[in-house]
Design brief:
By secondary structure, the chain is mainly alpha-helical. It is built from 16 helices and no strands. The protein has three domains: 1-127, Serine Threonine Protein Phosphatase 5, Tetratricopeptide repeat; 146-195, Serine Threonine Protein Phosphatase 5, Tetratricopeptide repeat, CATH 1.25.40; 198-280, Tetratricopeptide repeat domain (Serine Threonine Protein Phosphatase 5, Tetratricopeptide repeat). The chain has helices spanning 9-13, 27-40, 44-57, 62-74, 78-91, 96-108, 112-124, 130-142, 146-159, 164-176, 180-193, 198-210, 214-227, 232-244, 248-261, 265-276.
């Protein structure tokens, strides 16, 4: 559902006090400062080692746990990220970044109820950013609460009118609410800011297909396949649109290519076509 979003380290670390100003001994602030620099440079494993040193020097410094948890999250080690953010929150319950990172980790683990609660707390503590509202909207979407998802995506767009992912994900939510014309509008804006994303073209094409605007759907599927020429789902979708447009011979070629790329699609697609009466 979601566009892949990798937040910069600076987002996670924004607002954390520079430890060199906190009256530590020389080793601790230097280790933390080194960790932040390594983290921002994308040297995540080295950053974790530096956070380890900072935590060893002062195990009650919440910001060091926040940073190390964010680094673990970047490596996909969500359980370790959650453990560090738990400790950061225990030390300082007012650190909005800790709630945000823990929420994101729960999100990745598909524990959406927990994610929503932590996003709530992050927002309450003033993490009112486009990213926070968009990610909470994504959790609501995963829970099937599409109206709430639309509300959060709308707030994300208000905070950052160029947030392509928020427009895209709001389009997906509108689709689930049966508002396909409105979904098309959001996909179109998302493509303005992110014109090389095959999934946005694919989903706008899907909306056009539902609206029986087959020529527009086919144009978007073509654009998607130029970007991602080995995407089996898009070939299958384009085949369905060609069937709708009365171009059955061309549709069969797209289905064949789809099954070649992903044989698991064959049974599902044939079942769907039989249900629709398009396949005898």
């Amino acid at each position: 559902m979601k566009l892949k979003i990798i937040l910069p380290a600076a987002f996670f670390l924004a607002g954390l006090a520079p430890l060199s100003s906190l009256g530590w001994g020389a080793a601790a602030p230097n280790a933390y400062d080194d960790a932040v620099k390594l983290h921002e440079a994308g040297k995540i494993k080295e950053a974790i080692a530096a956070y380890d040193s900072a935590i060893k020097a002062n195990p009650r410094r919440a910001e060091a746990f926040v940073g190390r948890g964010a680094a673990y999250a970047r490596l996909g080690q969500q359980d370790l990220a959650i453990k560090d953010e738990d400790q950061a929150i225990k030390l300082d319950p007012k650190l909005s970044q800790a709630y945000f990172i823990r929420a994101s980790a729960y999100d990745d683990l598909k524990q959406y109820d927990r994610a929503v609660k932590d996003y709530d707390e992050a927002i309450r503590l003033n993490a009112k950013t486009s990213d926070t509202f968009r990610r909470r909207g994504g959790a609501y979407y995963a829970l099937g609460q599409f109206d709430k998802a639309v509300g959060d995506f709308t707030e994300a767009i208000r905070l950052d009118p160029k947030d392509a992912a928020a427009y895209y994900e709001r389009g997906l939510a509108f689709r689930r609410l049966g508002k396909h014309e409105t979904a098309v509008q959001d996909y179109t804006v998302a493509l303005k800011f992110n014109p090389n994303n095959a999934e946005i073209y694919n989903n706008r094409a899907n909306a056009y297909y539902v609206l029986r605007k087959y020529d527009l759907a086919l144009a978007d599927y073509d654009a998607a396949l130029k970007i991602d020429p080995k995407n089996a789902r898009i070939y299958a979708n384009r085949g369905l649109a060609k069937l709708g447009a009365g171009r059955s011979a061309e549709a069969e070629k797209d289905f064949a290519r789809s099954f070649e790329l992903d044989p698991s699609l064959k049974q599902k697609l044939e079942s769907d076509l039989k249900a629709k009466g398009s396949l005898k």
